[in-house]
Amino acid sequence: MHAPKIVAAATAFGMGLALAGCSGSEETEQPTSTSTVAAATTQAAPAADLPTVEELNGVLQRAADPNLPIEERMLTVQGGEQVPELFDVMTQSQQESGANFQVVPPVLPDFEPNQVLAAVNLTAPGEEPTLINDVNFVFEDGHWKLSQRWACNLISGTLPADQVPAMCAANAPVAPAPVDAAPAPAL
Predict the structure, then answer these.
(1) CA–CA dist 105, 13 (Å, integer)
(2) H/E segment holding residue 19
(3) What stretches of 84-148 adopt beta strand conformation (E)?
(4) C-alpha span between 68 and 84 (Å, rounded)
(5) Short-list 178, 175, 148, 176, CA closest to 164
(6) Would you say 168 and 155 are in contact if contact means Cβ atoms under 8 Å apart?
(7) What confidence tens digit (pLDDT) does each residue in 67-78 have?
(8) Which helix (H) or strand (E) holds 20?
């Protein structure tokens, strides 16, 4: 059944934007000169504190909440401002399928700064619960957002090609090149 997968993709896509992030890092030293301050601010933003499970669940809820203004919902997905129509699709899919998404502990730091990984439990009426591991969230513009790459991978795998948003179609996985029977010429 595609409805739970679509809802999972849509909700997961919206997770990352709704989290309000904390700025600052105990590891960042205070620069002592104006030129050092300018260099520090252009090189890297301070690392955000890890979000809580509750914050990430809030992202999921806001992404598919039809009662919120679209401007707020777009803050739940990295690149969401480029595809505002996605959020109505997410809401409709979730309502039709009855699917529910719940981030489960732990929330772990990713390899890159200002990124975290979490597992999301997908439940739908009449279906076995599905645990989706390594859902990636990014801290961007003061908000935790579901990463565009992860959301697009999920959406591309669950929606028919003609329903995949343009921002995801451009990043769709590339099919492997066909294998020729003839050997490649030696160099």
Answers:
(1) 19
(2) strand 19-20
(3) 100-109, 115-123, 130-140, 143-146
(4) 13
(5) 148
(6) yes
(7) 999 999 999 999
(8) strand 19-20
Please enumerate in sequence order all residues whose Cβ is within 8 A of that of 16, keeping only pairs 6 or more positions apart, or say none. 56, 59, 76, 77, 78, 136, 137, 138, 143, 144, 145, 146, 147
**Residue 31: both structure tokens together:** 């620069």
User: Terminus-to-terminus CA distance in the chain, angstroms?
Assistant: 50
Residue 61: both structure tokens together: 């809820």
> Sheet of 115-123: strands edge to edge?
19-20, 143-146, 130-140, 115-123, 100-109
pTM of structure: 0.64
Task: Convert the pLDDT of each residue in 90-138 to its tens digit.
Answer: 787 778 778 888 999 999 999 999 999 999 998 889 999 999 899 999 9
Euclidean distance between CA atoms 16 and 100, whole angstroms: 16
Burial of 57 per CB tally in 10 Å (0-12, 13-18, 19+): buried
CA angle in degrees (0–180, nearest 5) for 31-34-37: 45
